[in-house]
């Protein structure tokens, strides 16, 4: 029974990690092929990153570097990641379901 529980637990972990990976791929496809070309803004941190990227391109055209949506997503999610790690725990931070 112990061996069976280990196998089930490992299978659940792999299923959760696979689901998170596939979700990330699908969202990146949606962002690059639909949201950005169609000028559709998402909600939450993703929408904020899109909005900041658009505003910097539109209102600061003389700036040498315009941050991409991907870079802004990383920068905006980093404090949330650290906060979740400290307040909730490392298991929830990586696999929140």
Can you describe this structure?
- By secondary structure, the protein is an all-alpha fold.
- The chain has 2 domains: 1-40; 41-92, no CATH class.
- It contains 4 helices and no strands.
- It has helices at residues 2-35, 44-59, 69-87, 90-94.
- The longest helix has 34 residues, at 2-35.
Strand composition percent: under 5%
Radius of gyration, whole Å: 18 Å
From the spread of the alpha carbons, the general shape counts as elongated
Mean pLDDT rating: 87
When the domains are counted, the total is 2
Q: Structural class from helices and strands?
A: mainly alpha
Query: Which regions are unreliable across 5 or more consecutive residues at pLDDT < 50?
Result: none
List the helices and strands and how they pair.
Blueprint: H1 2-35, H2 44-59, H3 69-87, H4 90-94
Features:
2 domains, mainly alpha, elongated, 97 residues, 4 helices
In short:
With 97 residues, this protein is mainly alpha-helical.
């Amino acid at each position: 029974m112990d061996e069976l529980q280990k196998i089930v637990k490992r299978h659940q972990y792999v299923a959760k990690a696979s689901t998170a990976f596939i979700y990330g791929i699908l969202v990146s496809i949606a962002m690059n092929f639909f949201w950005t070309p169609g000028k559709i803004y998402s909600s939450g941190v993703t929408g904020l990153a899109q909005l900041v990227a658009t505003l910097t391109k539109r209102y600061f055209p003389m700036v040498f570097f315009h941050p991409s949506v991907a870079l802004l997503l990383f920068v905006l999610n980093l404090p949330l990641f650290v906060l979740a790690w400290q307040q909730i725990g490392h298991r929830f931070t990586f696999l929140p379901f």
